[in-house]
Design a protein that fits this description.
The structure is a single chain. The protein is an all-beta fold and 129 residues long. It has no helices and five strands.
Length: 129
Amino acid sequence: MSQLINPYIAQLPANYNTGLIKEFAPRINSSLTYEEIEPSEFPFDCNKTSSAFYAYYSSADFSTTESFESWNVEACVPNNKTESSLKATRGRQDVSEELYLNITFSAPKTPERSTATFTASQIIVKNYS
């Protein structure tokens, strides 16, 4: 299995027979990459884009009696989140989404970008009977 380029297995019950009907099985491949980016690459206007996801949290937002270091968390997904990335089709769909994170503990840290890519499609289940 580890020597296959793009392995895909769809386990079906014993003696499964599709008959005259075409049956389809879903197929999803995904990958995730991570990289540190320059501060100038972080989309600082993300909070002004209505279709993007944006969140900002800070230790100053929480009143607590315990003493912790100050921290800030800023997250941005600039893609349009008002509609699904997937369409109603049996054809191949390649989707890529990016998440930007800027986490600070007392001192600034380099922002990060994670990119998730996935391919969704359907394959025809062969009838071998």
